[in-house]
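**Backbone shape codes:**
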Amino acid sequence: MSEMRSIALLAPVLFLACSSSESTPAAAGGAGGGAGSGGVGGAGGGVATQCAYPTDLTADRATGRVDSTQTFGAAPTPRRVRVGVGGAVGSSDAAYADPAHTAAVVWDTDVDTQATDLRIGTSEAALDATVSGFSYLLAGSVPTRVHQVHLCGLTASTTYYYQVGGGTAWSDVRALTTLPAAGAADSVTIGVSGDARDSLDVVWPAVQGRLRAATPSFQVFTGDVSPIALANSEDDYGKWLDGLWAAGTASGVQSSQPLFAIGGNHEHLQAQWLANFAFPGTGAYQGYFYSFDAGPAHVVVLDDFAVSASVPDTGAQPAILEFLDKDLAAADARRATVPFVVVFHHKGELSTSNHASDSDVARMRPLLMPVWDAHHVDLVLNGHDHNYERSTPATWSGSAPAVAGAGQGTTYIVCAGAGASAYAPGDGSEAYSAKRARFGASTSYVGLYGLLTVGKTTMSWKAYGLKSGGTRPEDDDVIDTQDWTR
């Protein structure tokens, strides 16, 4: 029997919210795609079928798209297998992204291999259905074919077993566990890291090893993969994916936990970055913004480049702000069932370190902070400044950030040290800067990461200073904690 790897659900992979039903999501495409795509059920698991939502990719991100065929090149064995979600970005859409009931699996091969099949079942020994997908040539400098298979009809908080490939070239057997349904009582834990760019071979895999050991429900990476700003190649992104792949075991963290990867200013919204993943939505702004529910948490994922650029993007910026306003208004109205709202993006509104006075951050603050205020966002998590900082609850005063009154405001946290060189923290002169810490220099830490646990009545944060030589969070120091209650 092939080796089984444990995995939950990974993010930048297209994916759809099928319906509130735990077993037969309405948007699942039972007739779509490939031999055996009628799906598999089994004790405790919903029927897996090919999703019916659109999976269109823009021409700058993908060429040579083909549905699965039994065509094989020189290196057909799947590598960098990753699992995530897709679907629609609108929370009122029947196909709204829903990692409790759908999943999308992505992997890489040589450019000539077109077999894009997934065998799935509720037992490792009985992968009794096949769902087929599509593949395309990746934009960028390294010849790669990316494969995607989209699964609908899954049951929340349930483990499935699968392998990908085709013919005689299959991955090992892996297990994916869907997330809790929106409003479920189950808590979720989110692994948080950012800014890997300067140590893709040492610190970045070490952070991922810790997050594998911590077994969060999913991860969010807050941007800046490559050390070469604005000139990234697929080779850079491949090294980052390989750092994930190398962590813990040969199957890699990315195929073991969901990972929602956000582009930073070093990714610059490049097509070759975006093409590595499948995101909710379609069209030119796919991957710029989306959201989903995971048990008691509403999670918003934002690439903030278009709202901080020196020349405003007259298409993307209003689209982002409209999405945020509608999405967060809907989330605020559902607090009785999904009580906590958390936003992730790259540049920190309230960092007091190196980038605090940058013009792009200054442009971003008055655009985003009033949105967070209006919809009572609990927490915003960022990268960009390579250190640790937590604010007091804060608001936008109309002209500048201000400490919020009791029971009001949003907390802002920068936790960026997954391989990038360290910055000195701010001097604490801003009243809203509550906690600052660094790594490198005279400290015993080589990096930073965090774990956020969200329950029905309490949300708890722990930030860690990464030490050399350890393998688990218990080997590192907790450098900050914060709790929120409902």
